[in-house]
Amino acid sequence: MAVETLDSTTRPKVAPWNDPVVRGWVFQIVIVGLVGLLAWFLVTNTLENLARQKIASGYDYLSREAGFEIGDSMIPYSPASTYARAILVGMLNTLKVAVLGIVLSTILGTLIGIGRLSPNWLLSKICEWYVEAFRNVPLLLWLFLFYKLISEAFPGPRQAISLLGSLFLSNRGLYFPVPLADPIHHWMAVGLLVGVVAAFVVKRWAKRRQEATGLPFPTIRAAIALVIGVPLVVWLLGGAPHHMSWPELKGFNFQGGTVIQPEFTALLVGLVIYTSAFIAEIVRSGILALNKGQSEAAMALGLSRAQSMRLVLLPQAMRVIVPPMTSQYLNITKNSSLAIAIGYPDLVAAVNVTINQTGQAIENILIIMAAFLTVSLGISAFMNWYNKRIALRER
Amino acid sequence: MNKLSTALVAALAVFSMSEMAWAGKDLDAIKTRGQLVCGVMEGTAGFARLDNRGKWVGFNVDLCRAISAVIFGDSEKVKYVPLTTQQRFTAVQSGEVDLLTRNVTWTLTRDTVLGLDFGAVFYYDGQGLMVNKKLGVKSAKELEGATVCVAPGTTTELNLADYFRANKMTFKPVVIEKVDEVRAAFFSGRCDVYTNDSTSLYATRAANPPPPLTPDDFVILPEIISKEPLAPAFRQGDNQFGDIVRWTQYAMIETEEYGITSENVDEMLKSDNPSIKRILGVSPGMGKSLGVDEKWVYNIVKQVGNYGESFERNIGMGSPLKIARGLNALWKNGGAQYAPPIR
Fold it and tell me: Is residue B301 part of a domain?
């Protein structure tokens, strides 16, 4: 037993209570045990207290009829639906605003961040003011401001501003026509997916060809053509059904078409403008972290400013940008819960109503926590994967 | 997020509630603390609001003061905690407040699975709908497709959905947590309709339209779409405290019935009427049975007034709200306010 002999020769024999290895294990077991005990105590004590106060516990209520209406839903919902469905509606609304918020604030933030580095004095000053103005005022105030602007500045539905004869802008939101449901739409979605995959394939092929032969290929234009073209061809093959649902003023409001509600707009605009100010600074710091030699080398190769930014600087800056960007994405998701202040029916709003109707605060708060944790861990996992992919590979 | 954090704090409070605190019972805890903690509304004219000297006044506040007068002999030993509709039940469940004297509707679910008990009905209310006069709406039946501003987490929200379903109409709710923001959204025209208990609608119409709008620009539709018996709510488990709350309310009604007011209560002490003598503790016994001072009713009437006085002063004809007694008149006058005898 070579190991044992090695042990007995390298480590002096000591009593077990003086052995740092044994002691380490003992302490860890004791701590884990204490934490476990505390958790057990909290859970049983809570359940006991709830039972003693005759407050119902458990998740049975999820299948009961919710009875309240939700103003904005991506899936069919009525007051006859269950609490579980009401919470799902809220969850989808949260995801909708978070995903759109992440995409838009990344685009806007990157543009502003690059703009701040522009040699054009006016452009860089405007970008600087933007950042300072928007990140230094609490988000909640921006939300209130945008919501007030929308609901006070636009007229009521009967005096709605009509754009192009079929778009209607009022304090009820922006109404616009949508195609009537048709089975072809499913196939168009499939077509879109095919287009996206094809675009990636073309991009890889073009890159490989350029590396081998030096011949450039208009990848971006080809990708756009594929993503838009494939669903369009599917639509034409399906006989080009073009029946639309038009918004029409009936009674109090517009019927038909679809609507972007002011609460959603205010929340999205607030989140995007606020977060893009932070993202701009992250992008700027990422670019400034690069050695000046990089941009000089790019210029020496004869690349234009836009090319050197896109091909040389940004890919390297990504390594600095991605980790703090993850925090900003998580912030957007979590800040979306401020929706309740301006009446957008997000997850927190739906769960809060459920708490009030059922009185089961603990169960419902666990649902909110689990939902946000899942979304946040999902974003983190994706960003960590992406970070690893773009990390500097030392050869 | 602050509602979420309140709820979390409340949840933690439930977590940490130890055996000791529970065994102490609510009434003992109140006496030890030397103060009654009442959950009230955030500021509704007539019911509960801060006056210009920073003192809480209103119809709901008077009930708290009366209970304090019974327990401590002093109507001012009260701490008021303004609560939103979403915070209120967690606040009382977790012990943050002793009772809610805000406009809470007494329902079966709340009386059972929420772990609450209710006192007597201090106001018979019903849910109404308010619209801008310009819309030309005469009846709630004409509201198909309307956008409705509503505060969340209340029976109001459920009644609204029920009413529209029952009449095969659709609506879009705009649900904002702070009542001020809901009102602001309605007055800015974001919604066609604002719905709430009709008392609250009257209060809103009288006090809140932003200039140049005036109260006359709004009409309250004739339909009452629900029964809303408003009653104080407290935790289950302390029957003596429950008795004190209920009998404080009954004493306020009973004294109105016998014509005992804050002005004549000292003369009434000399009354020969055996009922009045019993009520005011001149012939002792009632206070002892309830476990409080024999002068409990005297203290209520002297310091706060009877039910009718409190009603008129805060929300009745002597106030800007000008709500008629209606269902809330004494039973003798055709109303529903009826107290069991103090004997």
Answer: no
Answer yes or no: are the C-beta atoms of A106 and A283 closer than 8 Å: no
Cβ–Cβ of B86/A172 closer than 8 Å?
no
8 Å CB contact between A230 and A194: yes
Instruction: Determine the CATH number of domain A83-132+263-390.
Output: 1.10.3720.10
Residue B195 lies in a domain: yes
Structure token digits, residue B266 = 């000292």
Domain assignment present for residue B275? The answer is no
Indicate whether B253 and B327 sit together in one domain. Answer: yes
Q: Closest chain B residue to A147 measured between Cα atoms? A: B185
User: CA A231, A233, A235, A237 torsion: positive or negative?
Assistant: negative
> CB A78: neighbour CB atoms within 10 A?
14
**Helical pair B2-16 and A347-358, crossing angle rounded to 10 deg:** 40
Split at pLDDT 50, 70, 90, the class of A10 is low
CATH number of the CATH domain containing B33:
3.40.190.10
Task: Count interface pairs A-B at CB distance under 8 A.
Answer: 158
**A240-257 confidence digits (pLDDT tens):** 777 777 888 777 777 777
Instruction: Compute and round to an integer the Cα radius of gyration of chain B.
Output: 21
Asked if B200 and B144 sit in the same domain, the reply is yes
Read off the pLDDT of each residue in A27-56 and give the average, rounded to a whole number.
86
| Interface check B145 vs A, CB under 8 A | yes
Range of the domain at B60: 2-123+230-258+307-333
Quickly state the pLDDT bin for B23 (edges 50, 70, 90): very low
Strand pairing report for B146-150 and B193-197: parallel
Alpha-carbon distance B105 to B156, whole Å? 9
- Pick among A65, A249, A356 to test the B interface (most B CBs inside 10 A): A356
Closest partner residue to B11 (CB to CB) among A337, A342, A362 is: A362
Regarding whether B115 and B72 lie in a shared domain, the answer is yes
**Judged by CB atoms within 8 Å, which residues 147-166 of A form the interface with B?**
148, 151-152, 156
Which of 64-93 (B) contact A at CB < 8 A? Answer: 85-86, 89-90, 93
pLDDT tens sequence across A104-136: 999 999 999 999 988 899 999 999 999 999 999
Whether B119 and B206 share a structural domain: no
Examine residue B296 and state whether it is found in any structural domain, yes or no: no
Residue A263 in contact with residue A339, Cβ under 8 Å? yes
Check CB contact under 8 Å for A357 and B158.
yes
Same domain (yes/no): B35, B169? no
Residues of chain A contacting residue B171, judged by C-beta atoms under 8 Å apart: 69
pLDDT score, position B20: 38
B146 to chain A, any CB pair closer than 8 A? The answer is yes
pTM: 0.74
Please judge whether A67 and B160 are an interchain contact, meaning their C-beta atoms are less than 8 angstroms apart: no
Residues B43 and B116 in one domain: yes
Length of chain B: 343
